[in-house]
Design a protein that fits this description.
The chain is an alpha+beta fold. The protein is built from 23 helices and twelve strands. Helix content is 51%, strand content 10%.
Length: 589
């Protein structure tokens, strides 16, 4: 990583770590500003729930709204602010290491920088000690009651969500739709903060599980902690994959339905099913979309339509599922290893910690479903506002609304910005996006002073206009996430519907990729961590998985024959079709 020693000012470290799972590639101004608002609101509520004093909450206003950054359309963690956030709760030195693992951060910050970061200051030592005691006690109480708190929150969430989800926003006056948006922020986001305690619960539980594993089983494989803490077969996140597999079973049972699904245009599939009289299967598809419609690729990006608006991608994944095994792997390798290597009182204590970690991970997946639904409701509302702006002639097309920042959109309805300004703003940002799309973005870089000032964003920090070429290496190493040895053709994909069996290789994934997992013989993710959503589900399905494999999408190309070892975190390139073709041409000539 390169810095610019010639500049003065505050050091900031920008890392896309696992934020790329939620916001990949160029992300619209509306999505970024909505996400930044949501993160700031939720974590301010989290600090309040831990009883951080009012004066210190005001100090957090200096950095809490900027947990995320936006560079050439790409979203990054403002990493040092996340260290500040972690420092609010106890066990900072342990938690910051676990945070780095959970996020998939490749290069931890130095101890000197980490120790210098503080979320707030106190006017006296006595006030600091008293506040620390209150926060620690509150943290411990919430840690012990986390499962109950999650259940209570989810009950509240689904009651509120039912109200937002059943509204036809297109039929409401625009000012009423905008009021519902403010209600969404108040009723859901402000109440979400206390649930962020769950991240600390997971980190501490996994840290304890890893400590016991390395102490009592020093020869244990690297993947054991992640596999042992799997949230269980009943985890909500696995349901889209299982439901898609069930649809594939129904299709395979009817030859004429199989022919239709494999050959009809995805965009015309719903009509084709109706015309062909497959009413029962059509009802099953509609039930899938009703239950899992928000589980679509790039589901948190407001500009991307979900399955309810555009079901075509569902049928592309269904085609792949027709050729995948109907019964995914169910072998519990962690259980087998523990049964062979850990017994007695040590095993009993390990299982206590293991259950806490597993329940916490299952709860996190449950809350992520809630988050997806909350973003889905926001997506409906903001799209309705875009249609209103198009109707009155403020923008050329309803989806131009995504080129606006959230404060600009709100300003139209609050009277702080004229709607006549919007077309010019959209035109400028469309030109900027065209340039940004051509750039290759680094995974991590540093800035000093004003992030966009001269010398901060140049090729020295990793920004470039061209993608780097392959180096020709034959072996790669990453972090083991789910064990298994598999050999097959690589499928390098940017969207889950591109998967047609083989070993799936992706720069990043998001929850919308879950439905594609039963179609993959293995999974390799360049950016992410063993706690990445898709990595967790892959473990439940028994799919061999490696994460944090640097340069995977540069060095591996679709069609290459590769061998991946999920237990060791290694990939070996066995042959390169391009090279084979070159050799053949040389021989012929």
């Amino acid at each position: 990583m390169t810095t610019n020693p010639g500049r003065d000012g505050e050091l900031r470290i920008w890392d896309n770590a696992n934020i790329v799972e939620s916001f990949s590639g160029v992300t619209s101004p509306l999505t970024f500003t909505f996400a930044a608002m949501a993160y700031g609101t939720v974590y301010e509520s989290y600090a309040r729930s831990l009883r951080v004093p009012r004066e210190q909450l005001r100090q957090m206003d200096d950095w809490l709204p900027s947990l995320l950054g936006h560079f050439h359309g790409r979203v990054y963690y403002n990493l040092l602010n996340w260290y500040r956030l972690v420092r609010i709760s106890p066990f900072y030195r342990i938690n910051r290491r676990l945070l780095e693992t959970a996020m998939g951060v490749d290069v931890p910050v130095s101890d000197g920088i980490a120790e210098s970061l503080r979320p707030y200051e106190f006017r006296s030592r006595w006030r600091r000690r008293f506040s620390r005691a209150v926060i620690n006690f509150t943290f411990a109480w919430k840690f012990l009651r986390m499962a109950n708190n999650v259940r209570r929150f989810t009950r509240y969430f689904y009651r509120s969500y039912a109200v937002f989800d059943k509204v036809d926003y297109g039929s409401l006056p625009a000012d009423e739709t905008y009021r519902r948006f403010k209600d969404l922020k108040r009723d859901l986001l402000y109440r979400w903060g206390p649930m962020q305690m769950l991240d600390s619960t997971i980190l501490l539980s996994l840290g304890a599980l890893h400590f016991l594993g390395t102490k009592w089983m020093p020869e244990a494989p690297e993947w054991l902690t992640w596999a042992a803490a799997r949230p269980g077969a009943a985890v909500e996140s696995v349901e889209p994959a299982r439901a898609l597999s069930a649809l594939a079973v129904r299709v395979r049972a009817e030859p004429d339905l199989t022919d239709l699904v494999e050959n009809a245009e995805p965009n015309e599939m719903m009509r084709a099913l109706r015309d062909a009289g497959h009413d029962e299967f059509l009802q099953a598809v509609e039930a899938y979309i009703s239950d899992h419609g928000y589980r679509s690729p790039d589901e948190l990006k407001l500009e991307v339509p979900d399955l309810r608006e555009d079901p075509a991608s569902l049928f592309l994944m269904l085609r792949d599922a027709l050729h995948s095994p109907s019964d995914p792997h169910t072998r519990d390798t962690a259980q087998e290893y523990l049964d062979a290597h850990l017994h007695g009182i040590r095993r009993a204590l390990y299982e206590v910690v293991r259950r806490k970690a597993s329940r916490s991970l299952a709860d996190r997946e449950r809350l992520r479903f809630c988050r997806t639904r909350a973003f889905g409701s926001a997506k409906q509302i903001l799209r309705a506002l875009g249609r209103d702006l198009h109707r009155v002639g403020a923008i050329e097309s309803f989806d131009d609304v995504f080129y606006l920042r959230l404060e600009e959109l709100c300003g139209v309805y609050e009277g702080t910005i004229a709607h006549t300004e919007l077309k010019d703003l959209v035109a400028v940002r469309k030109r900027i996006r065209e340039r940004d799309e051509l750039m290759s973005a680094p995974a991590r870089f540093e800035t000093r002073g004003g992030p966009y000032f001269d010398g901060n964003l140049d090729e020295a920090t990793g920004w470039a206009s061209q993608h780097a070429a392959r180096t020709g290496v034959r072996s790669l190493r990453g972090t083991p996430s789910s064990p298994g040895l598999v050999e097959g053709r690589a499928v390098v994909a940017t969207r889950p519907q591109d998967v047609k069996g083989g070993i799936l290789v992706a720069y990043r994934t998001d929850p919308g990729w879950v439905a594609a997992l039963p179609n993959a013989a293995g999974l390799i993710i360049e950016r992410g961590s063993p706690l990445t959503h898709v990595a967790i589900v892959a473990r439940e399905l028994g799919v061999p998985t490696i994460v944090k494999m640097k340069d995977a999408t540069r060095e591996i190309e679709t069609g290459m024959l590769i061998r991946m070892d999920g237990a060791q975190g290694t990939v070996t390139i066995l042959d390169d079709p391009a090279e084979t073709e070159c050799i053949a041409e040389t021989v012929v000539s």
